[in-house]
Amino acid sequence: MKKKHIISIVLTAFILVSCGTSTRNTYTTPQQINEPQIAEITPIFETQIERVNNCDGTNPTYNVSYKTIETQKATFEISVGAGGLVTGTPIPSALEVQLEAKITAALAKDYGLTAEKNHDMTLENPPGTYLEHTIEWEVTRVKGLVEVIYGDGVAQVVFEKIANVELYNRTSVPLGCNGSDASALSTIVNSSETPITILEPQPTLAPQPTSSPVPQAPPSSRFTAGQLLYEEIFDNASAWILEGNRIEDGNLIIVPDNDAVPQDSDIYTDFILESRFYVPTSGSMAFYLRHQNPPCDDWNCSIQIVLYYGSNNSLAARRFLGASSGKQEDIKSGNISSIIKLNEWNTISVAVRGNTYEITLNETLVFDFVDNTYTSGAFIIDNAGPDEVKIDYVRIYAIQ
Question: For a Cys staple, 353 with which of 9, 239, 265, 270, CB 3.0–4.6 Å?
Fold first, then answer.
């Protein structure tokens, strides 16, 4: 799971002093490479715009990728020299390989950042449309220092690296076919640097909704909601297996370390699930989708969409092949620090068609993924946090 921090460190310059008039030895092989000191982890949000003309039906799909994905190799600069290295001297290729390996291992171990080499995406363009696709990438840049110890001193090597790239959001806007430029397939990339900050939420009283919002198509950049298949607004307790939970003021209250299960849950294949929920300042809750009933093994065989909020604001997708140890597999995760609302109401939409899943939180696309494990199933809501969570409604739509 990706973790993001800003770590302030003091880069201490080592002053190398030679004594007497003896000739200074030159050491070309380092005796030791210390662990990287991370100075800053910063997300850069880059916007990529692709205009695809399919007015004549000749461009039904268009493939895009993160354009600078191959630049994930770190760049180095020597700030203090030793062992024959001086500021401005290129780093030997063998040492560069060692430094790159050290940095990659440290980022994976301490921060969960692993470089992804491929970020390809297929844009769907219905016949007779001219679409402007806006793709936002969250690019994680890391800066820091590695100390290289030689027999005659310590060299300090400053580095900068793209550690991770993830899809942040994707939207499409139709342009008019009449008079449009059929040759327009342009790419525009802008970037803005937004350092990560950790906000301490202030406790507030939980606002109670006066009524559930009118059913409407949940936000999705790829799928369109059709017929409303299921709706629960929690006006009575008879439709759910509570087992310690309760219905109160039009909300389902799920107590800590408990789950909520519909009495007679239907089996859904392709669908869009939408829910409105209230979370406290810390904890985690999850929606289990395509849950197998009867289970395939143990009690839990499903795709889990879990939200962590508070100290670690993230959303993760997991594959459960049973409840036993070792049968839980991570699929994908994303940071939701700027999306989740603590001590407030939130909305989530999960669109599922075939093997493709897309998760939207508070009208912001978090990520999508592909998984072939289950083709249909029921749903369960779970609260693994230390405090109660509230569910205002659950709606399931067919996909057009």
Answer: 270
